[in-house]
Amino acid sequence: MKFFIDTANLEQIKEAQDLGVLDGVTTNPSLMAKEGIKGHENVINHYKAICEIVDGDVSAEVIATDYEGIVKEGEALAALNPQIVVKVPMIKDGIKAIKYFSSKGIKTNCTLVFSAGQALLAAKAGATYVSPFIGRLDDVSTDGLELIAQIRIIFDNYGYDTQILSASVRHTMHIIKCAELGSDVATCPLSAILGLLNHPLTDNGLKKFLEDAKKFQ
Ligand code: E4P
């Protein structure tokens, strides 16, 4: 399973990249705003800076919601760097735009997916990635992971190439369950990725090994 980091924070992206396990980055307007990025030029420069840190795909979300606007914005974003994946919302004009981008060889990430039907539409339109939001479904008492399982079955039934990019991941159990269910990618906060390192038996075991090592040094 590929690991993407779900942030626009350059320090966190660098930290995950330095760990050697990072396959890409996802951003969204809320994450960009959180970093205080303001103005078109600064936004563009920020995407370029992210692409310089990582080797893999970097999702950059369009703001337009009409077909022409999404296409114009998406083409400009895609022209920034071959790593850029145009992130398009799951709306009617978004699906049409994904079909267009797919025909032009521009990578897409269909975002704000909350149902299997939406994922199926995105795959049929030729999306590179589809982003089901696990955590936000959990927030409204709906099993987000169940949606990942459903989409996996549907995509496998018909051999869709669209990759399942599990999003709105909140903690380590989400990551582990996504891996069990065959999600192609999980985009995670840095804390959840680093959380995978932790086990008290590892800490205790290492402490004892290091104590014993002193006996023969
Ligand atoms: C990433 O592609 C999504 O925009 C993101 O995972 C949403 O996460 P949130 O539900 O924690 O805002």
How does this model look, in words?
It contains eleven helices and eight strands. The protein starts with a strand and ends with a helix. Strand 3, helix 4 (67-78) and strand 4 form a beta-alpha-beta unit. Helices cover 54% and strands 17% of the residues. The structure holds erythose-4-phosphate. Erythose-4-phosphate binds at residues 6, 26, 28, 111, 131, 133, 135-136, 167-168, 187.
Q: What small-molecule ligands were found?
A: erythose-4-phosphate
Strand order of the largest sheet: 1-2-3-4-5-6-7-8
Residue share in β-strands: 15-25%
State the end-to-end distance: 41 Å
Counting DSSP E segments of at least 2 residues, the number of strands comes to: 8
| Rg from alpha-carbon coordinates | 19 Å
Structural category is alpha/beta
Uncertain runs:
none
Shape: globular
Biggest pleated-sheet summary: 8 strands, parallel, barrel
- Whole-number average pLDDT? 98
Please give the share of residues in helix. 40-55%
Topology pattern, helix = H, strand = E:
EHEHHEHEHEHEHHEHEHH
- Number of helical runs? 11
What is the secondary structure topology, with strand pairs?
Blueprint: E1 2-6, H1 10-19, E2 24-26, H2 29-34, H3 40-53, E3 57-61, H4 67-78, E4 84-89, H5 92-103, E5 108-113, H6 116-125, E6 129-132, H7 134-139, H8 144-158, E7 163-166, H9 172-181, E8 185-188, H10 190-195, H11 200-215
Parallel strand pairs: 1-2, 1-8, 2-3, 3-4, 4-5, 5-6, 6-7, 7-8
The structure holds erythose-4-phosphate (E4P).
The site of erythose-4-phosphate has 11 residues, from helix 7.
